[in-house]
Amino acid sequence: MSLERFSFHKIVLYGVLLVGLGACRTDPANAPLPTQVDPNAFATSVVMTREAPPTGFDTVAFERIDANTERLGGFRATASLSFEGVFARTPRTTNALSEAEIFDNPVTNARRVIASLANNLTPDIPSLNYEAVRLGEDVFLVRDGVCVQNAPDDAKLAVELSAGTLLGGIKNATTAYQRATVNSEIVWRYAFIPDDLVLPNVGFGADSQILGMTGELWVSPTLNAVVRYYLTLEVENITLFGGNLPVSGTLFLRYELYEAGTPVNLSVPFGC
After folding, report:
1. Fewest CB atoms less than 10 Å from the CB: which of 1, 37, 111, 201?
2. What residues contact 261, with CB distance under 8 A and at least 6 apart?
3. Among residues 76, 132, 130, 111, which one has the least CA distance to residue 256?
4. Whole-model pTM above 0.90?
5. Residue 167 located in a structural domain
6. How far apart are CA 51 and CA 73, in angstroms?
7. Which tens digits make up the pLDDT trace of 22-72?
């Protein structure tokens, strides 16, 4: 190899090395930084991934809070609607409480409902206590401790009272990314707003308002059913149970589902 050719190759090699060394000596202050991760956003993302409900349950709707319970093969449920407050625009206090405990066994077409309504909202809405039982084709009704013998239509209507009839439900709710065990069921919590509420026993007029709301909705994807529903509303100028006198105060709705999938044994109520 000639001297000239050798020197040319050395010059090229030195040039490459110098370029490489120059790159290694780039001012650290001007070097590109890696993308930084917001620790709070990262933690939230991890929780959302870990606590996300099963596919298809990002949003739910139960316009009757006890929807799909007829498919469970048996259950027990409790429901209550209560109010504490005043007659609107007056200092007169008033209250109301309606409760129901429901036992259902669709396998044998058996059902038991224990219900009560106590209130001083209006004399047009009487207080009552009853137990209604259906055993196959036979229906029994005990009202205020007395077995009612000649009111089959009343008995059939009474035994069909449901949590959905009393409380209504939710038109739309979105996952809150929280998993728990409630009433022995694995459930996820869902969030909702006042516009999502279905309230069949609450009347809203032009001047009615919801001043505040807190609530919990816990759903079992396995059952495709609500296991717990708690709602507290601060309300103004509403009516209850079809009454005519508006009231203002605090409304409480509570629903619990128990023993899902467990057939219950029912019998003729005492006295019938």
Report:
1. 1
2. 72, 73, 74, 75, 223
3. 76
4. no
5. yes
6. 28
7. 333 444 445 454 545 445 444 344 445 578 999 999 999 999 999 999 999
pLDDT at 261: 95
Query: Collapsing DSSP states into helix, strand and coil, what is residue 264?
Result: coil
**Is 76 among the domain residues?**
yes
Can you give the length of the chain in residues? 272
Task: Report the number of distinct structural domains present in the chain.
Answer: 1
Q: Which residues, listed in sequence order, are joined to residue 133 by a DSSP beta bridge?
A: 112, 140
Domain that holds residue 174: 50-97+162-258
Sign of the C-alpha dihedral computed for residues 35, 40, 41 and 44 taken in this order:
positive
**54 found inside a domain:** yes
Cβ atoms of 244 and 218 closer than 8 Å: no
Model confidence pLDDT, tens digit, residues 210-245: 999 999 999 999 999 999 999 999 999 999 988 889
CA-only gyration radius of the chain, Å:
32
